[in-house]
Amino acid sequence: MLVAYAAADPPARSAVMQTLSWIALWWRRAQSVKERDELPFDILADAVPAILWTARPDGFVDFISDTMYQFTGLTREQALGWGWAGSVHPDDVAVCTSKWKHSLEVGESLEVEYRLRAADGSNRWFLVRGNPVRDQQGNIVRWIGTCTDIEEQRHHQQILEQQIKERTEELGEANTRLQEEMWEKDLARRKLDEQNEKMLEDLTARSQRATLLAQMGELLQSCMSNDEVFAAALGFAPKIFPTRRGFIALLNAGHDVAEIAGQWHDCEPRVAFEPSSCWALRTGHPHLVVAGDTTAPCAHAVGVKNTYLCVPILAQGEALGILHFQATEESPTLVDSELSLKTTFAGQVGLSVANIRLREALRTQSIKDPLTGLYNRRYLEETMERETRRAVRAEQGLGVLMLDLDHFKKFNDTHGHDAGDTVLRETASFLLKSVRAEDIVCRFGGEEFVVILPVADLKVTQARAERIRTRMRELTVMHQGQSLGMVTVSVGVAELPQHGASAKELLEAADAALYRAKREGRDRVAVAETAVAIEVKLT
User: Which residue in 107, 197, 396, 447 could disulfide with 408, CB within 3.0 to 4.6 Å?
Assistant: First the structure.
């Protein structure tokens, strides 16, 4: 069925649609390609107030109406095939040919705007549209389309857009002037009331700051991480100190660089600096620098002309970073009462960090094995329950490895318990390096370890077990300058859902496979048996 596009220019639309309808009727009645070629197609094409073109199914343009040749100056031989692209503006060739090739590939209609170069060297914008003609079986037998001059439309559109832009700018300027007038009137009014309200405002501000400081302290007590502490501090700082610019800088893990954690009111500078650049970090006490005083300025504040104050953030006597405050032109001084408030602010932040460190230490002690640094059995049970539920819910696999060091008692009996502890620590380090970032390694107890592999099927889990077993044989464990010999490991493998649908079932299946590996000679990997296989053995 032929679908043709009319010209974009409204006065020409009716003529284009009527002519294309004649062409469509002519195509339907034609009995063969030969008959179509013999009909006066060029006469129909010249009746369309636009350039009419047709192309073979492969995109080879085999007809263009005379209007094209008259406009571009190309001959028929130069324009047919892909030669028409030579008259397209260089900046539009890529888009033009890309869209045409895309339509050919997917069999969809073509619509693209580009500039054609006229015979006199000028360029005009055209809208090109084309549709595939299909036979009764749906196969494309030809393409037909129009190329319509839209230069005037684009020109009128540009004029309209420019007019809209100019009008918008005028309205913006008027709005700005209105806002400036309103601000000036408001400023004049506030100056009249300033003296009478100044004392009341100061008292109200102090009360509000004290209330906000208390609210921040209550919130900081509930923070679970340093990120939450500093996010809360940065959120409250501009509220508690609305007339001060400032930033929070934190020492990195190496304590050799202070990095900006955040700032408020566009405080400058906002770049990392060395701790020695700040007197507050060097002395452990607040450091005030009055504008113009060159006695002991902080090197990180070079270029700051206003009065500024650096307050160290301390936790358990250790410096974590600084709170930096800058006076503004509106409030150029920092009085003693502000120093007390800012010191209290920094003290609350430091106390919260100290509390978090204590909680983290207690948490680590409760879930980490002190000898190997791996997660302990308690954490394993919590994690297995969580990962099992997640895997069942997402319908994904979950692999479990249970490992046991072979003849571990020999290390203790031969070399002593310190040597056995060394083997356990080296094994733990080896396992951590042998798994993915998302995998979880735990010490199950004694010389047994468990590795949880989220989103891992049985094939991946078994391959991981074999790789660990093989590479474990290459591990060299040194104790007091002597090698303890080769360390081997037996591994039991289980996978959800094949070997169980709960954490308990998976661990039991992996444990049973581990002991089977032990019975069969150690230094090997054994895969858990499915419930069906176990029932067959029992019968």
Answer: 447
